[in-house]
Amino acid sequence: MFLEKIHHVAIIASDYEKSKHFYTEILELPIIRENYRADRDSYKLDLQVGTSEIELFSFPNPPERPNTPEAVGLRHLCFYTEDVEAAVEKLEAKGIECEPIRMDDYTNKKFTFFKDPDGLPLELHE
Questions:
Q1: What residues make up the domain containing 19?
Q2: Phi, psi of 25 (to 5 degrees)
Q3: Which residue numbers delimit the VOC domain (predicted)?
Q4: Strands of 121-125's sheet in order across
Q5: Strands (E), 21-71
Q6: Would strands 110-115 and 31-37 be described as parallel, antiparallel, or unpaired?
Q7: Which of 121, 29, 3 is closest to 67 using CA atoms?
Q8: 13 and which of 19, 35, 71, 111 could share a cystine (Cβ 3.0–4.6 Å)?
Q9: Over pLDDT 70: what percentage of the chain?
């Protein structure tokens, strides 16, 4: 196979500071680098997730995303965790609402969903 791993996922935020706080303070993702691109009036924040990255962008007046998870395009972003219950407790202690924990019928592993400040569906999966 010539594809080895996911290098990064790009997210466009409607409120850069609010999303930066969510991903760095709530989810505790380390910042790799942050750049302001004056020619685009845009920030680009690179965050570490294991061996992958999230690129968090800001743009002036970005269009809204379809809010149904079944819309064409990226459905959700999933994070692996060794303990979904502990991760949910940590998120809920920080004021983040999570769906009830469920069992994946195919892997028999626990999972749940929560949302980022723009309503992007995020999943936790063991």
A1: 1-61
A2: -95, -45
A3: 5-126
A4: 77-80, 121-125, 110-115, 102-103
A5: 31-37, 42-49, 52-58
A6: unpaired
A7: 121
A8: 19
A9: 94
Which tokens belong to 38? Answer: 């004056």
The type of residue at 112 is T
Span 36-54, pLDDT tens digits? 999 999 999 999 999 999 9
Strands 121-125 vs 110-115: parallel, antiparallel or unpaired? antiparallel
On the question of pLDDT at 68 being above 80, the answer is no
Number of domains in the chain: 2
CA 70 to CA 5: how far, in whole Å? 25
How far apart CA 116 and CA 99 sit, in angstroms, is 13
User: Which residues fall within 8 angstroms of residue 84, CB to CB, at 6 or more apart?
Assistant: 101, 110, 111, 112, 124, 125, 126
